[in-house]
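Bench log. Compound arrived from synthesis this morning; before running ITC I wanted a structural hypothesis for how zinc ion sits in the protein. Inputs:
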Amino acid sequence: MDYEALGLKAGIEIHQQLDTEEKLFCRCPTVLRDTEERSGEFFRYLRATESELGEIDRAAQEEMKLVRRFRYYTYDTVCLVEHDEEPPAPMNREALAVCLTIAKMLGMTPIEQVHTMRKLVIDGSNTSGFQRTALVALNGALPDGCQIETICLEEEAAQRVADETFSLDRLGVPLVEITTAPCMHTPEDVQRVAEYIGMVLRSTGRVKRGLGTIRQDINVSIRDGARVEIKGVQDLGLLAEAVRLEVQRQVNLLAIRDELCARNASVDPNPVDVTDIFAATKSAILQKAKCILAIRLPGFAGLVGREIQPGRRLGSEMADYARKCGVGGIFHTDELPAYGVTAEEVERLRERVGAAGEDCVVLVASTRQRAGCAAEQVLIRARMALAGVPEETRRMLEGGGTAYMRPLPGAARMYPETDVFPITIGKALWESIEVPELLTARAERFVAEHGLDPALARQVAFSERLPLFERMVAAGVRPTLAARTILATMRELARDGVQVERIADDEVLYLLEAVEAGRAAKEAVPDLLAELARMGARGPPATPDQSRERVDAAIEKVAPAVSQEEVEAIVRRVLQEREKFARQRGMAALGPLMGVVMKDLRGSADGKLVSDVLKRELQRLLS
Amino acid sequence: MRCTCAGLTLAGTYITERDGMAVVKLDSGYNIGISFSNVGWLERPSPPPAVTTPVVVQDSALPEISIISTGGTIASRVDYRTGAVTSQFSASDILRAIPELGSIGRYRTRQVASILSENMLPAIWQELARAVYEEIGRGVAGVIVTHGTDTMSYSAAAVSFMVRTPVPVVFVGSQRSADRPSSDNAMNALCSAAAATSPLGEVAVVMHDTTSDDRCAVHRATRVRKMHTSRRDAFRSMGMPPIGYVDYPSLKVELADEAVRRGTEEPELREALEERCGLLYFHPGMPADVLDPFEGYAGLVLAGTGLGHVRTGWIPRLRELIAGGTTVVMTSQCLHGRVCDRVYDTGRDLLSIGVIEGEDMLPEVALVKLMWVLGQEGDPDAIRELVQANLRGEIRRRSHDGL
Ligand SMILES: [Zn+2]
């Protein structure tokens, strides 16, 4: 597809959790919990407050379609602020500093006085019914010129456990929201920009890592299409694909619109009750429904069933809208007869609603109230098809496709959080913010300073164990040994089922120090790490001393260091046993003999030491 | 309005001045504070569009409930253009905010005051009592008083002493502001309306019973206390269980046997109050001259330690106060349990100089009661008798509820 010609415009919003001690507006730790560990639960109803204009936000209203009661799980790491039972504490200064650091790295200008707002969110993910958010800095730029519009500091929402059940551990974790201008014009641009910003964020060393700690929302539109926001893309690898598929969807919806126009299609606003037609149907869903309503869509035949994204049709979009009323889905005549509905039933249905050959008929089945609501939703979506692409918030499906979530939120459903005082970002504060080295720059430095191979250097720089690497190098561990241990060795051990996450950073450091000091052999490192992981089952070491003790105990158990005299003794014994072989081969026997000696030592001695001794002894034998 | 910030020109609405900066609401909805030198007027703000608030038609077949407001917010509206939050008082506004109220009763509203509850005055209690009495006289099925939660229990106790009522008089408020979708205002209002049309016949406080939106407790006005600064379920009955519960969302009212039933009392207003009364919280080391300003006061309630004590050194000064005509009533900082000044020497000394044991009355309730008693009665023996008599459920003859 020629994206430039289609007028693709895309922007991204990146949400990144910050790794601070405490939450943004209370003093609770920013730790996630297992729902099994919950200490209690409670439930609440949320109701949208009326605005000055006598209207309720359309996104909020959508959520109100179902009367919803939200259940919340609470923990001993959660307080009354997350329960919405206590006013917020002042804004966490540590989080503000991290946010300002990121702003500075992106070349942004801070707001003189930062005001915290309440943003209406009544899907249950915020106990208060709003999310606290503050605009912190404006107008930055990426190296390729793409503009960063804003960075906001806000509180993370509660995690959804099941439909209407939320877990409060995540609520209130500081989050930065970075919004770019719609400055990307190809799917690959989107991917690249997201990767770059992600790298900047990780360069601070102050952001959370791991699944769910960073989420991307993408804004996509094409010429004559509409702005569509795709929510919560967690897998960076899917960004470009999501953009491609959204463009495809909009192109197809526009083609459908053109065809509907050409056919002079319309929407019959009066659903017809057709429950009796399906009294004896073989379709289980229709059979048990108390009420079945039919919506006639003149001129829509064949288009409701037309694919707009892999596996998704215009009918899928209508079904998404209908689901907001609590129905499971819809049937339409483009896909009937099927699902137990016979050709004869379809014929009677068409006859009843007066459908011509060019017309499509959509069925919704549920209780009377739900079916009425769902029919209304189908009508709304069908009318949108006549106009083209609706502005929507969509959620990502597996594979990069999307489903309708809710209308785009209105722009201005915010009012001040009066319980939090504004913060002035003075010159002194702004100037005190230090800009950390970018991970890409750090990788280059590792190549230059430590002679690491560029791929390895990049891996180290982007690794979660980067601080450990830097500590080890500072302690005199050879950079390659340090890098290989945290990247290759530990990864291989993890693949073999060793619980490497149980090994403390301190332990890795002391272990490699021991290797460098000749107290343990490099070759024994995997076995030693595995032993430390086993010891870690008792819980992490409480103090640096305890880490040292564990490392010493592991060396003692797995591979007690062998002294040079012992190595010499073993080497002499091996040479004696294989004297004939050694004399035949001369110095070429070094390699094979080395293997025999090392096997004997079981990794308890450093390979270089062994090879030096062996070489010397062999030379002596041959001379 | 336009402002320049970070080299950008941004459009927004000027809201106010704060700490020498202009607070501007950007079109994105965010407020920012910027120097006035960076702000330029683009155009005068257009006047807000006229708000047409449709009048809600009420069901004339339902019982009539009178809502009297004193400043507590039962409904509010947010102007997202400016971020301003305004309280709503008219019946129509309240019904549009909480439509479910419409199926419980029809409403008339009346505003007695519009104050923060910490600014409440005994004179406003009297105004409130008159309003309640008048509404009862109009034949309403029940009265709801919306009130800020800080001093709600004082006002409820005051009305309880001043007005004899055959119908429920229900005080209600919210702990979490009404502008938030999670506010307890709607559920509390619905439960109070249910209580106001129930068989109850006394003054009560109806507020959340737990942190969940599951039920409200109905508390006796003279035995209730705000026991938490911010939680929804801050109001607790002290020394007795609540006199009822209202289940949510069914709004089924369940009253304890002890709750006074509708029609038990004849309406009566006795609004006189003696305002020259004080409440003093004793602490170790508190000097006796703290009592000096109470010279000439008609009444003084002491919140003493434990069973009802103040330091021995206070005895001479208290004797002078009492001799000068001040009625002194002893209550306990423990809040739970009964005062007994017959156990230790200090207590016996306090009794001998004429300090009245306030039984198991809450200190604040004892203060309000003392104001009322002194407003009705001048004879010291009659005053003592009234203070120690159970008039409105404020004193329990038997102590059987623990902590
Ligand atoms: Zn907390």
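What the model suggests: Chain B has three domains: 2-41, 64-269, 277-387. Residues 64-269 of chain B form a domain with the Rossmann fold fold (CATH 3.40.50.1170).
ITC booked for Thursday regardless.
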